[in-house]
Amino acid sequence: MNETITIAAENIIEINPMYLFRWEEPQQAHVLLYPEGIVKVNETGAEILKLCNGIKTVTEIISELNDKYSTDVTDSVNKFLEVAHAKGWIRSKS
Amino acid sequence: MPKDGSEVSLDGLGIPMWLTLEMTYRCPLHCPWCSNPLDFDKFKNELSTDDWKRVLREGRAMGALQLGFTGGEPMLRDDIEELVAYSTELGYYANLITSGIGLTPERLKAMKDGGLKQIQLSLQSSDRDITNKLVGADVYDQKLSVAHEIKRQGFPMVLNVPICKQNIGQTRDILELAEELGVEYIEFANIQYYNWALLNRAEFLPTREEIEDAEVAVKETRERLGKKMEIYFVIPDYFDERPKACMNGWGAIHLTIGPDGAALPCQEARIIKGFEFPSVLDHSLDWIWNESPVFNAFRGEEWMKEPCRSCDEKEKDHGGCRCQALLLTGDAANTDPVCSKSPFHDLIKSSVAETTNEHRVERPLVYRRKGAITTDFLETTE
Lengths: 94, 382
Ligand SMILES: C[S@@+](CC[C@H](N)C(=O)[O-])C[C@H]1O[C@@H](n2cnc3c(N)ncnc32)[C@H](O)[C@@H]1O
Ligand code: SF4
Ligand code: SF4
Hints:
heterodimer, A: alpha+beta, Arc Repressor Mutant, subunit A, 3 helices, B: alpha/beta, 9-stranded mixed sheet, 14 helices, 9 strands, about 10% strand
């Protein structure tokens, strides 16, 4: 499983296969479903998780979001990825 | 069974996000802590496959997300595979909660194909004889081979170990067994003292010292294994000064449907007499959740008595467990006696004190069996 404590810029990120990430109409929100739990993800978090698709690296995710929001979101994206990784929502693809 | 404090988004939307289906109360095992009703044998009319499908549709339409198939032993129903597949189609995250008995590789495969996401297997000890003795049947080997098969087929798995005096000393061995099996989660479930468990409480309650030793074993294993295996271990409420936030509040996110179709705010709620639990055979899930008197009885804070009413912690624990308040104090609206502010807290303190009483007389366990005790005094729903 995910042994690395932090994630590096060149890591390819994917959602932990035990988790299901999707839009929920009744809640009008994105949710992460996993064994014994539900997390509601806020809008910015959802934008980041959508890019954790097992193809893009951290660098690519950040540059895409920088373009999208036309400001520098590097720090906040990094922070979110750290937290999401610590919680086991995402992992780097080996 | 969802854990206290399991991660959920509580945003006041009032949606029954967590749906638990008790498919049957039949079970080949005889666990003396079983949370099923004492008169389990009277629930012979079980919902049909079509009834369950309707419940699933109505729940999903209201926004339910997490789904648990439990019982009794759910594998005694021959429609679990069909219902799992149906629930996946509807968009649920389906969990199976099982003793493992009847869970053949073929049925596992069928449920995998049907989109089953996770399996919770109950195991009582790392020791064959103790396990068999605790469940009243010779099933340890079968449970272990089911555990291996579950992992072989690639399911995430939770081992559920109901923790009691008889197995708490084996915490370290159980953790090693779990590691060997490669489970993602292990839950040391505190026995909740209702129904069969309450009958056997004096035999099950460990001492504080035993709990602290177990905690050390858990801590060391956590440090050693890191993220590889998540260990749920919380101090039993009897040994705490505050109650658990039972079900995250009555009628807040959990909805349980019994084998007979009775809708329950939690799996133990049937013990609260004087309530007429609405049946899914007579009412829509929407009415049951939003309108029925039972689901509104202990919602929010209006119903609270002192000391909860003027307590600044009520948002944290909602006054604890209604069933525990009823069973131990005689009134479901009272403060959970586990709370040190409860005027009935001595009841808890004295049963904890009993755990270290050298003169305590040991009694044999009462196993979950039809006729093990008289249940004539209980009214049934049928
Ligand atoms: C009631 S059983 C039903 C499903 C299946 N027969 C099984 O044993 O897994 C569901 C889960 O609740 C646990 N359980 C049963 N009685 C309990 C109690 N009094 N307190 C806490 N957990 C309990 C069991 O260990 C099991 O994991
Ligand atoms: S806890 Fe034991 S007796 Fe109760 S339903 Fe599960 S396996 Fe059967
Ligand atoms: S008095 Fe009631 S609300 Fe306050 S801590 Fe105790 S149980 Fe919770």
